[in-house]
């Protein structure tokens, strides 16, 4: 039986009437996205036609999921909300704090030794507040959610940008910051700007070396890292129906890399097969009774241009394998074009590592298709040229793959089987003792993100994203430009060998199996559970509420940093070794903006302290301003805050005294996170005004006493030479969000309403 089956029954029972009401309100056929959004309106939200890209709407998600790195701060915030337990089904997953180094057994034990305090904290908080806890080694949050919790037509939020993986099972699953999770767990409305809709019509059927991963790699090449911002991507067509459920999950998962709010597919037989294979016959039976409501209306898919804001069509029959990167996931290259491009750009052609797994390509199907390529190396006398690493997605996948001999195939090539955890994908890969001075090299992986220093901390690692089967082929060849469609390899006998096309299993032929899935159910009554945080801990720190707005315009603030170019959440709050401080706001704030490029010096973590005239680290400079009672301002470029849902990227500057972040444009999640923490997230009306910011500026923000929706504020730059620049800056705050600002944070407002 599925988890939370009672909740799922209620969703499906109410679905037909709610969809009929939504169709009447909009007076037209509905996309799948609209069906799910309009049937999950908060009970206090009046049903009406909301304007895409403009209307703020309150929703009531069905569930919440949190990974361990973000769960710490989310739960520390929830402890202040004044609630006895979570209002909706919620889980926390210990998957990020496990470093990849030597292999599963040693790495898992080392993580338990190093992070025991955090894991005990998460386990006790989950016990107290009725939250399910998936212990270290149980698996990567998004794969575990797909196997256990995702259901067609449902809506969930998760404190990780790749929550969208659940779209593979027909959900609307949205990555958010921890403060958003607290809203839902506290039975408050969850706010989202009604997204635009991008329809992707898939025709034909994947064949040969083409994989589901290639669909999203191509889409990323079309839309770029910001092309999906503020939009839901809905896939449909015969090509969509022909793909497996986990393949759909892969596509949705990497939708985070185009900035999309989420991605989803309509319910079909592949989802039913997956539900039944993962012991959820009850969910499949319920879904089948309302299946016409779990996909877009026929008229929508027949004439998509009338119902979507943008339509992309991809012919799967002709789709070729892609390799995206380096340093950005949207730099798409068709496999046969890599040699010319790599040579031109001076990318290393020799590949040192091939990595398969993560939340997006760690299913049984992925491992089986990659194993079919790996086995050819053994059978045909080929010597693998690169090192091999495997991250199974869950203990259920690992156990079943091991039972069926898939892991043995990789081990025959001396592959390292890492823990069922995130490891290299999120910067937890201990590959080098001194990563900052490590050599220039190339790796290929089936992950999502490939920003500089992402996997191993080495700025010289050129990481390329491709499908699991292509990772296997390239690892065997040791060449970035290897094209398995046309190229041959020389075996031990000197023969020229051409790799056969990959084969695999959508689902394990003998079914899934597992001895211990790693799940800890919460106590039925958590009132007696005590959550202990030692005052001297360097890993965990109870939160002190942020101060409320003083009721005046903000004057006399100092420029902290003017960030130049790409500034992702990795640049604002790095992962890797800093993950251990995710529950300690003071300690982790020492990584604040240390990866951002200073526009004036073009280096990192080196900014001018206007009080002393000296240059030094960004966090130390911010602390100096804070100690002097002076607010500070961060200036940013385009798509500021791209990447993960990392709310620390908003909480750290807030903690260090930053009052406003002013940029050319924001990534969605980060802008929301800034608002939640009581910050001013503003944009230049004229992007050229970015150039007016000078290194010694003292900055005023005028108009806050009349702060209101759709009314610009004024920015005054007091330059060191006595001259002044003044211009308007825009914002997207609605009245509720303005109240967050006035109270000092959204959490402060929740606490006020619950006391």
Strand line-up of the largest beta sheet: 22-25-26-27-30-29-28
Relative helix content: 25-40%
Tell me what portion of residues adopts beta-strand conformation.
15-25%
Number of strands: 30
How does the SSE layout of this entry go?
Blueprint: H1 5-26, H2 32-38, E1 56-59, E2 63-67, H3 68-78, E3 90-93, H4 104-129, E4 132-134, H5 141-148, E5 155-158, E6 172-175, H6 178-185, E7 190-193, E8 196-203, H7 212-223, E9 231-236, H8 238-242, H9 245-253, E10 262-265, H10 269-277, H11 281-289, H12 298-302, E11 310-315, E12 322-324, E13 332-334, H13 338-345, E14 351-357, H14 364-379, E15 387-391, H15 395-403, H16 406-411, E16 416-417, E17 441-445, E18 461-465, H17 468-477, E19 489-490, E20 496-497, E21 519-520, E22 554-562, H18 569-572, H19 585-588, E23 607-608, E24 615-616, H20 618-627, E25 632-636, H21 648-655, E26 658-663, H22 668-676, E27 680-684, E28 698-702, E29 713-718, E30 724-730, H23 735-743, H24 746-753
Parallel strand pairs: 2-3, 2-5, 3-4, 5-6, 8-9, 8-11, 9-10, 14-15, 14-17, 15-16, 17-18, 22-25, 25-26, 26-27
Antiparallel strand pairs: 1-7, 4-21, 12-13, 19-20, 22-28, 23-24, 27-30, 28-29, 29-30
Structure summarized in a few sentences:
The chain is of the alpha/beta class and 755 residues long. The protein contains 24 helices and 30 strands. It is globular, with a radius of gyration of 25 Å.
